[in-house]
């Protein structure tokens, strides 16, 4: 399946900005099961491209500086990606980060009382680790209904579990914390999903991957209750949201910002 992505991130500032730098991770990964057909392009208005590099997770990173005195920044990403059916299986671990490093917790994925209580409900009657992971995925969405506007990018797995709902980022963090507690390396994935009911979307998507002996990395979209298929485009991976955030940065001054995202993913 070939998917076309048009993603616009528009920052508006209430006063001119003297200096701001954005770290952008919006370049689709090019790999055997996911190939960028046409050049993945990032166009910028109100800023200047400073640098492109590949980080320790294999993510393509672009640094963009906002023009001094500007009151808006527009980052426009476009590209076509050819995807194969992989049924959620990514395969063997690759890259400079050792596999064991994905067992360590982060502030967002610490397995506290809530996560430990969730894993204790799983029991031991499973034919495989993957079967247990799917059961865990179902438990996470039951414990935390999908509701927007309740959590933020800084919300931890434990904080989300103690609340009344969350989004895909929270589901991924809880699942990752639980899988690491159970002894499986796990990581966060950000990317794009072609939805069945609409083309226009408000944000990118997030899911998780866990590693199993003799199989490798396997994806779990907890929010939607299945493993990623050829409707999913992998963009960035990491220990948690912080490593795979589509856009994050810093700025000097007292300017308040307004963020508008326009996203289309279609066949």
From TrEMBL:
Residues 160-224 form the Transglutaminase-like domain. It holds the Pfam family Transglut_core. InterPro entries: Bac_transglu_N (IPR013589), Papain-like_cys_pep_sf (IPR038765), Transglutaminase-like (IPR002931). SUPFAM superfamilies: Cysteine proteinases. It comes from the Bacteria. This is Transglutaminase family protein. It comes from Sphingopyxis jiangsuensis.
């Amino acid at each position: 399946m070939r998917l076309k992505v048009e993603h616009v991130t528009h920052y508006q500032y209430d006063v001119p900005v003297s200096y701001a730098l954005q770290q952008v991770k919006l370049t689709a990964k090019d790999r055997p099961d996911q190939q960028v057909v046409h050049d993945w392009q990032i166009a910028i208005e109100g800023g200047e491209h400073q640098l492109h590099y590949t980080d320790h997770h294999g993510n393509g990173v672009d640094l963009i500086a906002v023009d001094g005195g500007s009151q808006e920044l527009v980052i426009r990403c476009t590209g076509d990606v050819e995807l194969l059916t992989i049924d959620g299986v990514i395969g063997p671990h690759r890259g400079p980060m050792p596999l064991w490093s994905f067992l360590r917790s982060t502030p967002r994925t610490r397995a506290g009382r809530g996560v430990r209580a969730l894993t204790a409900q799983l029991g031991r009657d499973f034919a495989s680790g993957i079967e247990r992971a799917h059961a865990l995925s179902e438990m996470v969405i039951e414990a935390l209904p999908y509701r927007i506007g309740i959590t933020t990018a800084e919300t931890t797995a434990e904080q989300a579990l103690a609340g009344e709902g969350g989004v895909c980022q929270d589901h991924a963090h809880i699942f990752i914390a639980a899988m690491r507690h159970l002894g499986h390396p796990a990581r966060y994935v950000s990317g794009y999903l072609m939805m069945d009911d609409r083309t226009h979307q408000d944000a990118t998507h997030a899911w998780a991957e866990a590693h199993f002996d003799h199989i490798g990395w396997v994806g779990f979209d907890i929010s939607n209750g299945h493993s990623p298929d050829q409707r999913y485009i992998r963009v960035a991976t990491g220990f948690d949201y912080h490593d795979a955030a589509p856009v994050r940065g810093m700025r000097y001054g007292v300017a308040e910002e307004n963020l508008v995202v326009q996203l289309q993913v279609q066949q």
